[in-house]
Prior knowledge:
Blueprint: H1 4-10, H2 14-27, H3 30-39, E1 44-45, H4 46-53, H5 58-70, E2 74-79, E3 85-90, H6 92-128
Antiparallel strand pairs: 1-3, 2-3
Protein name: Winged helix-turn-helix transcriptional regulator
Domain HTH hxlR-type: 17-116
Organism: Nocardioides hankookensis
Amino acid sequence: MVDSRTCARDGSDGEACTTIADMLARVGDKWSLLIVRTLGAGPLRFNELRRQVGDISQKMLSSTLKVLERDGLVSRTVVASVPPQVEYALTDLGHELLGPVRELAEWTSTNTPRILTARAAYDARAAGG
């Protein structure tokens, strides 16, 4: 994890380190990755996005979208209709993040058997005491 001590050791700019830490926290958050992955297929209205993401509350989806919008990863467009509807889409920056997100998902899929084996071995050692 990037923190102020790491930045002090390698001489990195403090603002850059803070941004890196913030973004690693963002992409490490369960909902952000699922939302980015889901919007990778194209723009969606709020309720459709909520249905596709799955077990996410309206409040959590709303707050996560606001953070993603603030970071420049998601755009919010009000669609002129009655009633007005809001559509969310990945920005160019969000599409750039989609590549590493897909690679991480592929890595996880490829290594799932190894991960499950490691977990089972750890759990057996922990249970034995």
